[in-house]
Amino acid sequence: MAKYIGKRLLYMILSLWMIVTATFFFMRIAPGNPFASEKKLPPEIEANLNAHFGLDKPWYAQYWEYLVRIVNWDFGPSFKYKSQTVNDLINEGFPVSFLLGMEAIFIAVAVGVLLGIIAALKHNRWPDYTAMIVAVLGISVPSFIMASFLQYFLAIKMGIFPVARWESFMHSVLPAVALASTPMAFIARLTRSSMLEVLANDYIKTAKSKGLSRGVITVKHTIRNALLPVVTYMGPLTAGILTGSFVIERIFGIPGLGAHFVTSINNRDYTVIMGVTVFYSILLLVSILLVDIAYGIIDPRIKLAGGKKGE
Amino acid sequence: MEKLLEVKNLEVSFQTYGGTVKAVRGVSFDLHKGETLAIVGESGSGKSVTSQSIMKLIPMPPGRISGGQILLSGEDIVPKTEKQMEKIRGKEISMIFQDPMTSLNPTMRVGTQIMEVLIKHQNMSKTDAKNRAIELLRLVGIPMPEKRVNQYPHEFSGGMRQRAMIAIALAANPKLLIADEPTTALDVTIQAQILELMKDLQNKMDTSIIFITHDLGVVANVADRVAVMYAGQIVEMGTVDEIFYDPRHPYTWGLLASMPSLENDEKAELAAIPGTPPDLTDPPKGDAFAARNQYALAIDFEEEPPMFQISETHFAKTWLLHPDAPKVEPPEAVKKRMRQLSSTFEKPVVVKEGK
Ligand SMILES: Nc1ncnc2c1ncn2[C@@H]1O[C@H](COP(=O)(O)OP(=O)(O)O)[C@@H](O)[C@H]1O
Ligand code: SF4
Ligand SMILES: [Mg+2]
Fold this sequence. Notes:
Chain A: Belongs to the binding-protein-dependent transport system permease family. Chain A contains twelve helices and no strands. Chain A is mostly helical. Chain A has a single domain (about 1-310), classed as MetI-like (MetI-like fold). Chain B is built from eleven helices and 13 strands.
């Protein structure tokens, strides 16, 4: 196990290095620079600014400096917000995004799994059709449309929830639902098909032949095994929530990391873009590792490579 | 001997997109206490559906028991509800399935899967159930049961899993054990061990067994009586001797002729029965076997044959037993083994459909 995790950590560092490098060079190729704006700056001032931020040095020097700083968990200053570092932005924005993301993941998993189970148990009857229509809507309606839709009806028309901002739990409900809708629909479909697959298995017939009640069979033999694929989906789910949050935070005016990220792309704020990208990558890689480890613990058939072999 | 099970005129059908599949069409047989009945027949002949109906395990819908009775110790189980069946399944009747690789839950410890039965039907505490599970594993010949009880199915070989299935099936001392091709998925040496184990346990526990197979070869070793199924019907039934040494139905002849035996060495061409079984959505008029039967008479395509009785225990459903039928000779491989049995009646007697 320790060996397996060690190996995985090594791969993670390698992937991170590649991501950092790729981001660095994409940023350089991209046209424009942080100080480009409608008004042309006098050349002396631009040169001064470039010198101040190190942009006058050759690319390999910049690249090396950047790598060294990242290893020290220092993402440097923001080009645009003079007084803030990228670390400040992350420290300030991430807790908000984290809360929103967790809420969305909770909704997606809880509601998705529930819908999937009901659909499978009532296969080809109205609860199944209803759940699957909800799922198709969830998958095909993009989250930003879902967001505006929720804002319009539940906030503006009915006034149940606040329209935007980030002040109380009530403020978090609509953005979390909007963020959760697509992954929730995926989870519902995944759970349903995996339930149906498990239900068709011989061991369910064995369980029935033992005289176990339908309830016991559903809980102990069906749902548990049907949820294994859902656990594997947690990695992509995290990624989906992360990227989804860029748009949703903008729409609801939430001061999270996603909103900062989008702003900094508009501003060509190199260091912020790179810093947040690296931060997101770390987050994603760690969550995928955690999911894999969890899966190995839940499914007895999986022996994490490096552990001892079966007989 | 006491009758444990009586199946009377059982009819089972499945509603499918292509129409109603009549999988079992009027099957009748009975089973005594401690007796082993083998049901043989090609794949698709309705063996599994018949046996699963006895536990009401067929998926309903699309399946439906559309007629007949299944009397367990004199009590009909066909009208019973699911709740009532839960008390019968695993306790009175239990079942071993064909593929031990898929019939155990892969994410549950083998011990727990045995304990479930004990907790449900014997009201045992967890600790007692675990100890009993270890005992049962030892009983079915699994070495180091104290360690094995905590393992998962993937840590067991195929033969070991089938032993574990037998432990599950016998945990609550059922009166009837249904084994649906329990050795088909195993290799030959393991097959023999499992059969040996089943016979051994039957003697110890006095269980009745319905043993389903498509291989007549294993039947002689395990069964007291044999029922031959074709296209959802029992076409011949008798003691092992009657079926092996005095078979009357051309389908049974075909099965016997295609059986590898000691005389014909293993490599010899087996005379498989030509053709395929009929579509049960729309069973043919007359005898279902007529189209594949080289001995078929004109009447076979018109009218279904009645059941004839050849001895106290021997029945066959073929027009060839009719007094007016021409005398026909069974194939060479079968004729070689034919013997005159003392119990045979003077003349076959027509019995009513379903006996
Ligand atoms: N769930 C089902 N739906 C439709 N038809 C079925 C179903 N189960 C069995 N059958 C049909 O019943 C017939 C008998 O099947 P089965 O009892 O499994 O045969 P055997 O066990 O003798 O190989 C087959 O024609 C099969 O197609
Ligand atoms: S009744 Fe006719 S078709 Fe059927 S087995 Fe007998 S001889 Fe063959
Ligand atoms: Mg079968």
